[in-house]
Amino acid sequence: MGGVDKGLQNFQGIPLAMHALLRLGPQVGEIMVNANRNLAAYESLGAPVWPDADADFAGPLAGFAAGLERCETEYLVTVPCDSPLFPPDMVERLAAALQEADADIAMVATREGGVVRAQPVFCLLKTALLGSLLAFLDSGQRKIDIWTASHACVEVVFEDSHAFAGANTLTELQQLQS
């Protein structure tokens, strides 16, 4: 997004990150934000804010690690701030699939043009995976699909792929609003 902080960009009059908090809040018991800059702005949204442990931007898995290190429950749910339309029953569906499959991770998948595509940043994972994730990151690896593939993972297909559309550019953000 041209260097601007994505989570603080307005969507329908409020920051993208606030949309994520408002949509996820009713689905979970506690909520937290992972951010690495503009921490005071994120804190003003009303949730605890935790930056990555390592200043070397390691991508989504570093955010997963920050959440897992502070999560006080058996499971952690992750969502990106740039996809404000995810379904209000997402966590319920992920939890049911995780339990039914006896998996470690349940992740969203969408069907686009007949092809099922994983959306691994939308996931429910066991907090017991923290050690595995830290070892993976310490080895210098960053690819989310490689780490998730090393665990029992179940994909939950959501037919409405637009619900998981993300805004990586200001143009895409405008398109989400139309």
UniProtKB/TrEMBL annotation:
Task: Give GO MF terms, alphabetically.
Answer: GTP binding; metal ion binding; molybdenum cofactor guanylyltransferase activity
Q: SUPFAM superfamilies given for it?
A: Nucleotide-diphospho-sugar transferases (SSF53448)
* EC nos: 2.7.7.77
Q: Which InterPro entries match?
A: MobA-like_NTP_Trfase, Molybde_CF_guanTrfase, Nucleotide-diphossugar_trans
Q: Biological process GO terms, please?
A: bis(molybdopterin guanine dinucleotide)molybdenum biosynthetic process
Pfam families on file: NTP_transf_3 (PF12804)
- Alphabetical keyword list: Cytoplasm, GTP-binding, Magnesium, Metal-binding, Molybdenum cofactor biosynthesis, Nucleotide-binding, Nucleotidyltransferase, Transferase
Annotated MobA-like NTP transferase domain ranges read 1-144
NCBIfam families tied to this protein: molyb_mobA
Q: What is this protein called?
A: Molybdenum cofactor guanylyltransferase
- Which species is listed as the source? Achromobacter agilis
Query: What is the taxonomic lineage of the source species?
Result: Bacteria, Pseudomonadati, Pseudomonadota, Betaproteobacteria, Burkholderiales
Gene designation per UniProt? mobA
